[in-house]
Every structure is written in C-alpha cells, then in structure tokens.
C-alpha cells in the first residue's frame, strides 16, 4: 500500500514504535532491500532477519492497524505499518519449579543462560503433549526451547521444548530425584531476579551433569558440596584465609574472629573448624568426607542458616525433609 509511506518497526524491548531511520542508518543496504520487499503488486510476506542493531532474531509479520482521532499526531504515521517485529529466540533452560495455575495451565520457573530466571506457561492437562512436557521439565532437568521474551510480561510464551542433547536425566533413582528436587527448590528460592549470569548457569549445568553421572550410593554428601560451591557464584563465599585455630565464624560478615561478635549469629570454635575443613569439599571429593546422620543434618542446618542471613527471603526448603529421611546412615 503506497499510502503507508515510511517503514516503521515495533521494538519489543521498549514497547515503542520507531521509524526505519531510527533503527537502520541511512546508508544501510538492508533498508533499501526491505523497502523493495513489499511491493504494491505482491501480497504481504513474512520475513525472518538477524538485525545487528537489535541483537536478536525477529519475525516480521503483516500488521494492519489504523490511527484513530485520539491518536497523537506524532505516532499516527507509525500506526500504519506493514510489518510488526516479534522476537523469538532460543533458550537454554534448567527447570526449577512448576506451580499449577488452573485446570489447564501450569507456570514453569526456569533458569536460563540468556535471561536468568524466567517464568513460562505450560499445558497441564492429560493430553499426550502435556505429559511429555511434564517429563521434560522435571526439576533440575536441562532443555532447549524457543521463547517470546518481552520485558513488559512476567510470564512468557515458550514452544518447541526438547531435552538438551548433552544432558542425561538424573531422576532414574529415588536418591537422585530427591537431590534434584532439593537443589531445584533451593535455587528457586534463591534466584529471584531475571538477570543473566553465564558463570552461575554453567555451574548449575555442571551440577546437573555431575549428578547424572554420580552413583546413588555415593551421593549422600552431594547436596553439601553443592551448597559450599554455590557460595562463590552468589558472592557470599566466606573468607577462609582468616581462619586460625580457636577462632569463631561470624555468619554475618563471613569471616573468622578470635572473639565472639556482639550478635549471636556465629559458630563456636569447634563448628568453625569443621566448616573450614569442609570448605575443600567438591563433587569429586564428597565421598571422602565421612559423616554420621547427625553430623550431616547439623552441617545442612548451618548452611541453610548462613544462606538465610544473606538471602532473607529464603525461608524453609520443604524438600529438605525428604533428604533427611533418605540419608539416615
């Protein structure tokens, strides 16, 4: 339609219409190509493009909306646009938690490499596709999908969900299922912001792969190693260099002190020394640390207390009781 005049685009990141001169420079070769793409003699088309100016893959689809009398004059011409720009991008996801929304929908919380924490809508019925998606999106499972991410939405649309090709499921045993559920619940309570953190995502992905390859009989200290190693990526790792024999550990400041602080949030010298020994625990060396049921529960309680001080909204992790009943040796 020649009456449309200039081309205009909708930038979904700011939810505002822009003309082509604001997105593409005048000398852009793509601009001249797209101006000739929609001719008055041809029907509307859809075009997929990779724009270096918008840093994402966009779908340009026919969009017909006319201006009204109440529309401000400065955007009336932009409302008559031939194409609307919609962003679809691939996501690398790790499932955290699924909450039932209604009879037909559930809300899935995932941690992604591209956008941090993201909430998405999933079908919750009894259909074959719904059962497949629930199996793929079990807690701490890694999968790939295509998402329509828009900043003005809290719940996004995802499609083409498929398991990650390099990750095997870790839920083939009750012990690993309980560990995966605890880690996913803990991460869901800790990771609240939609903020990208590639190093944290890679650590969680490494945790998923290691849990899948660890025998169930050697996984009794896996969650303890995870909580110790996670401190580094969250920026709350204690200063282990301040340790000295007989010192107490200040849970608030994350350092060892020669005398107890004025508050009561500290570990006595015996527990502080045990914490310093456990600071060397990793997924590979977790089986070398022999602990009784009481010792293991005490370590978990102190770790949860330390995280709760630095993340006040943590609260109680309900799946922890399942681990206490499993690891009773």
Number of strands: 13
The radius of gyration over CA amounts to 26 Å
- Kindly estimate the percentage of residues that lie in beta strands according to DSSP: 15-25%
- Which class best fits the helix and strand makeup? alpha+beta
Q: What is the global morphology? A: globular
Helix content, binned percent = 25-40%
State the helix count. Answer: 10
Q: Span from first to last CA?
A: 76 Å
Q: Could you walk me through the main structural features you see in this protein, from its secondary elements to its overall organization?
A:
This protein is an alpha+beta fold and 329 residues long. The protein is 33% helix and 23% strand. It has helices spanning 20-23, 29-37, 73-79, 128-136, 174-190, 198-213, 222-234, 269-278, 293-310, 320-326; strands spanning 8-11, 16-19, 47-51, 56-62, 83-87, 89-100, 105-112, 116-123, 142-148, 155-163, 248-250, 255-257, 266-267. A 5-stranded mixed barrel has the order 6-7-8-10-9.
Salient structural properties:
329 residues; alpha+beta; three-stranded antiparallel β-sheet; 10 helices; 13 strands
SSE blueprint:
Blueprint lengths: L7 E4 L4 E4 H4 L5 H9 L9 E5 L4 E7 L10 H7 L3 E5 L1 E12 L4 E8 L3 E8 L4 H9 L5 E7 L6 E9 L10 H17 L7 H16 L8 H13 L13 E3 L4 E3 L8 E2 L1 H10 L14 H18 L9 H7 L3
Parallel strand pairs: 8-10
Antiparallel strand pairs: 1-2, 3-4, 4-5, 6-7, 6-9, 7-8, 9-10, 11-12, 11-13
């Amino acid at each position: 339609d020649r009456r449309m005049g200039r081309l205009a685009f909708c930038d979904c990141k700011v939810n505002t219409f822009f003309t082509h001169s604001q997105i593409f420079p005048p000398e852009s070769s793509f601009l001249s190509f797209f101006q000739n793409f929609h001719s008055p003699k041809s029907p509307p088309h859809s075009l997929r493009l990779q724009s270096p100016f918008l840093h994402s893959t966009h779908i340009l689809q026919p969009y017909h909306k006319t201006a009204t009398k109440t529309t401000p004059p400065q955007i009336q011409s932009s409302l008559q646009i031939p194409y609307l720009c919609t962003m679809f991008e691939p996501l690398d996801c790790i499932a955290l938690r699924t909450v039932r929304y209604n009879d037909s929908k559930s809300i899935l919380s995932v941690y992604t490499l591209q956008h941090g924490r993201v909430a998405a809508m999933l079908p919750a019925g009894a259909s074959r596709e719904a059962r497949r998606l629930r199996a793929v999106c079990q807690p701490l499972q890694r999968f790939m999908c295509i998402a329509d991410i828009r900043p003005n939405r809290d719940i996004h649309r995802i499609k083409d969900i498929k398991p990650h090709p390099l990750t095997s499921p870790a839920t083939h045993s009750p012990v690993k299922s309980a560990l995966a559920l605890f880690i996913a619940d803990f991460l869901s309570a800790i990771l609240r912001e939609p903020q990208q953190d590639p190093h944290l995502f890679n650590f969680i992905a490494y945790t998923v792969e290691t849990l899948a390859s660890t025998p169930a009989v050697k996984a009794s200290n896996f969650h303890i190693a995870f909580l110790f190693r996670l401190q580094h990526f969250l920026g709350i790792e204690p200063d282990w260099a301040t340790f000295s024999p007989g010192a107490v550990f200040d849970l608030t400041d994350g350092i060892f002190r020669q005398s107890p602080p004025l508050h009561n949030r500290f570990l006595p010298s015996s527990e502080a020394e045990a914490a310093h020994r456990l600071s060397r625990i990793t997924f590979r060396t977790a089986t070398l640390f022999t602990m009784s049921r009481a010792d293991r529960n005490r370590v978990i309680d102190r770790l949860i207390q330390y995280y709760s001080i630095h993340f006040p909204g943590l609260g109680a992790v309900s799946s922890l009781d399942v681990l206490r009943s499993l690891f009773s040796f």
